[in-house]
Amino acid sequence: MTKLKALNGFKDIVPGEVELWQRVEAKARDIFSRFNFSEIRMPILEKTELFARSIGEATDIVEKEMYTFVDKQITMRPEATASLLRAYIQHGLHVQKPVQRLFTIGPMFRHERPQKGRLRQFHQMDVEVLGAANPRVDAELMAMGAMLLQDLGVSVSLEMNSLGCPDCRPVFRKVLLDFIEERYEALCDDCKRRSTSNPLRVLDCKNPACREQVTEAPSIQDHLCDGCSEHFTAVQESLQQLGVDYSLNKFMVRGLDYYSRTTFEFITTDLGAQAAVGAGGRYDGLVEQLGGPKNVPGIGFALGIERLVLLLQQQEEEMEKNTIDLFVVGLGEKASQYAFPLVHSLRKNGLQTAMDHEGRSLKSQMKQANKAGARYALIIGENELEQGQAVLRNMESQEQQDVAIGSDIDGISNLLVEKI
Ligand code: ATP
Ligand code: MG
Fold it and tell me: Which ligand gives the minimal distance to the CA of 263?
């Protein structure tokens, strides 16, 4: 009988791994409650129409990534914001409190090509603030995300853009279209199609040829109306007030139609192509668009748990790797005698240092250095010792440089500390 296996892109989270998930979720709950968020849980199945109306018909998610039961017109949620807003409207949560701060944690479903950090069932921690337009709230949310990621010990950078509003975005769209039309032939097929349906998406195409074409593209940041421009500036000032580092990225347009004004992403360089650990933005017209009360602005973001867990696993592996700063290779008795107090001095100087005491060969000592995970090796031969020279080798890049050695052991030790 063939063995039954989980579907491609769907994963079990087994003991040994589940502990990291628990750590991530517990830390998130801790931080979210410090920022006064309450939990909400929604069903996984929703009417297909909910996603078509919020995420947008011409987006990758709705066009090709959703798990839909076509005959029943229901869909497994591909993200949380639409469901959360549906629940917010259905239960009249705006009546209970003028500003609702809500979070939810759970599985999402998208039919994508599975890769490291990209699954078909994946999990998000999603936060949304409904009823607050103040730019301070945008900054507060980004600061909360940054705090959570920092507390977990993952290093990311925060990138931000503004997508303007229904007043200024159409103006920019035209400017961008003019720019794109001049380069139309050089774009990939997807972008050719996008240039009519959703030209802003050409800006974040991953295709290298398209990227090159848009480097000089106009920036939406230069085409914001007064209201959006003031909001954008105020968000940045508030981020600075909170000491949150960020950079502006004119190419970040996000794949969902509902965004307005602030959009942002938490980016890592440690997961290859799956660079976004979390992303979000403002969606001031969405509640009304879904049939809810007028003038309920909103903003939120979602963090991908799989990607966070991968980062934490990588970190643990790094930490488990035994490493030292320097292995001093003394060849022959005289060199070893010289190396002995030098190693001691280096250790006094704070360097993790090791040497061999058994008079082994160069080859065998280099093996030891490798095993110890030494970043550098200092090689001292008898002849070199007489000439007052040793060789400092970078074990990773394999670059070598000569280092002058002599009787001033502490002096040489200090010099090595500087070089390493
Ligand atoms: P990407 O550009 O990587 O496809 P996205 O813009 O589609 O991401 P969002 O819809 O903004 O992602 O979702 C927020 C976060 O959820 C992402 O930053 C990522 O961490 C996570 N995420 C999205 N899709 C997946 C997936 N298929 N597998 C695992 N995590 C995902
Ligand atoms: Mg995606």
Answer: 1
Give the CA distances from residue 204 to residues 115, 194, 290, in Å, rounded to whole numbers and listed in that order.
20, 11, 27
pLDDT digits (tens, 9 = 90+) for 185-211: 999 998 998 888 889 989 989 899 999
Total domains in the fold of the chain: 2
253 and 331 co-located in one domain? no
Among 259, 294, 316, give the residue marking a domain's end.
Answer: 316
* Residue owning tokens 């849980």: 41
For residue 39, count other CB atoms closer than 10 A to its CB: 11
Residues 336-374: tens digit of each pLDDT: 999 999 999 999 999 999 999 999 999 999 999 998 899
**Residues 30 and 106 occupy one common structural domain:** yes
Same domain, 306 and 329: no
Q: Is 110 in the pocket of ligand 1 (CB under 6 A)?
A: yes
| Interval between CA 314 and ligand 2 midpoint (Å) | 22
Mutate to test the pocket of ligand 1, among 249, 307, 308, 309 (most ligand atoms within 8 A of CB): 307
* Boundary (domain end) residue, out of 263, 288, 316: 316
pTM: 0.81
Residue minimizing CA distance to atom 11 of ligand 1: 279
- CATH (domain of 371): 3.40.50.800
Q: Ligand 1, closest atom to CA 280? A: 11
DSSP string of 176-229?
Answer: HHHHHHHHGGGS-HHHHHHHHH-GGGGGG---HHHHHHHTTPPPGGGG--HHHH
How many angstroms separate the alpha carbon of residue 228 from the centre of ligand 1?
26
Same domain for 255 and 300, yes or no, is yes
Query: Which residues sit opposite 104 in a β-bridge?
Result: 126
- Cβ atoms of 124 and 108 within 8 Å: the answer is yes
- Domain enclosing residue 33, as ranges: 18-168+224-316
Mark the ranges of the chain whose per-residue pLDDT is less than 50.
none
Give the type of residue at 104.
T
| 118 C-beta closer than 6 A to ligand 1 | yes
Q: What ranges make up the beta strands (E) of 283-388?
A: 298-304, 324-330, 353-355, 374-380
